[in-house]
Amino acid sequence: MGLGRMGWHMAAHLAGDGHGHDVVVFDVVESATDSWIAEHRGSVAPSVAAAVADAEMIITSLPADAQVRLVIGEAIDAVARGAVWIDHSTISADGAREHCATLGDRGVAFLDAPVSGGVDGARNGSLTVMVGGSREAFTRAEGIMTAYAARMTLMGGSGAGQVTKMTNQICVVGVCQALAEGLDFAMSAGLDAHAVVEAMLQGSSTSWQMQNRAAQMIDGEFDFGFSTSLMRKDIGLVLDEARAMNVSLPVTALVSQFLADVDALGGADLDWCSLMMRQRQFAPGRRGSETP
Ligand code: NAD
Question: What is the pTM of this model?
Fold first, then answer.
């Protein structure tokens, strides 16, 4: 359930020749299910309740806490005892623990299983999955997730997958902002920024961001990938969790403000590496004279 940028590909792998699972899809946006079913083997459920009724495994990839809560509420009376619910959405750890308890009361195991690797990882079937929940449920889910994931790790009890994903997001936000600053610096100095990246790629500054996002950042192409609004949601979850633990995350908090700027510049639906768009606003010769 949830045939968005990520779920679309995950469902495709599950239904594909290599795996051939019996897949039933559901999305609130009818055009999403229509176009998915036109290209893949499976069936479309008319509602959440119908989608979960006979399911052994329920897999969700939804935007945020609100949608996961809504879908579980619609499923709860229809879901079959003994099913495993794998939630690949990035949500709060508290939300995951609550869903685990609610579904557990109905005999359904809930795994919080947020992913990393982006849309390309989903398309290539090479996602990283960070899982919280019981070992028994993880063992049952592991074989299914191999359809779209290269690495699946059980991190601990319920909520541990989400806390691991939060750690992942803390580790990437500062790196992406640093890359934006470095590329802006090189471009402002009149260097060929693509050549600069090529020269640095095997050196100490390399990163997933540099390998996968630098070219688009230099070319100003941001209409793809993981949206700024979803990244702002993730960082909101991180900062809430850090506040509760009294942990100081100054760089993450700062980049969170920069992402709000990107949103204000019209970048809410653009990939969040559009931090570069904000950075370029201040490049020499552009200050106050041009919009990005
Ligand atoms: P998306 O917005 O593209 O897709 C979400 C899908 O859920 C949409 O098709 C939407 O119609 C559907 N949906 C919303 N409410 C629904 C409901 N009540 N019932 C059924 N379907 C509903 O989002 P996405 O980029 O695919 O991300 C999904 C999750 O994965 C998010 O939590 C995101 O943070 C996480 N994630 C995304 C990426 C990425 O690169 N896009 C990477 C890692 C993690």
Answer: 0.94
